[in-house]
Amino acid sequence: MSRGARSLDSSYFDQLYRDKPDPWNFGSSEYERRKYSATLVALDGARFQSAFEAGCSIGILTRQLAAYCDSLLAIDVAQAAVAKAKENCAGLSQVSIQPMHIPREWPAGKFDLIVFSEILYFLSLNDIAATADHSLASLEPGGMVLLVHWTGETDYPCEGDAAVEHYLSKCGRRLIVKAHRREPEYRLDLLTRA
Fold this sequence. Notes:
Helices cover 34% and strands 25% of the residues. It is an alpha/beta fold. The chain has a single domain (10-193), classed as Rossmann fold, CATH 3.40.50. A seven-stranded mixed sheet has the order 3-2-1-4-5-7-6, with helices on both faces. Helix 5 (125-138) links the parallel strand 4 and strand 5 (139-150). Helix 5 packs across helix 6 (160-171). The longest helix has 14 residues, at 125-138. The radius of gyration is 15 Å and the shape is globular.
């Protein structure tokens, strides 16, 4: 089977969290701290009525995003990640954390912010296309999509650049690039509905 043909399944992530409760060192990595800071700066102090974060892992970014959101739904495919994210976001009444496997499952409702941080490259090209369709269908007029992805080599279904470019191509002119930032290790793309 060729690269990009099949998404990683939930068992892959369940095993990662069994082996290490914070598999990517989200809670301690200087890279993650810098990237989270850039992610929040990209939002430029905006306030969001209803936000959706796909692939929240243990909720480190979720906790920071919550300060900008009246309501934030964060999801992850791994049960252990969801449990830890709930702990890390305890006391934040505007945050709801649920297990969900995108794009096969997708939340009901409309959002004025959708965040895909370090997640699209785990998906097949077909699933990235379906994710683009779902996100466009659930994005409010004037809403924003924020993509942040590692651009180094991976053994995932897609590299970061390829995953983001495929997502962008599927959205076509329906989303406009509002901001783009490229660092040595990651890229950040902020999109808004045309």
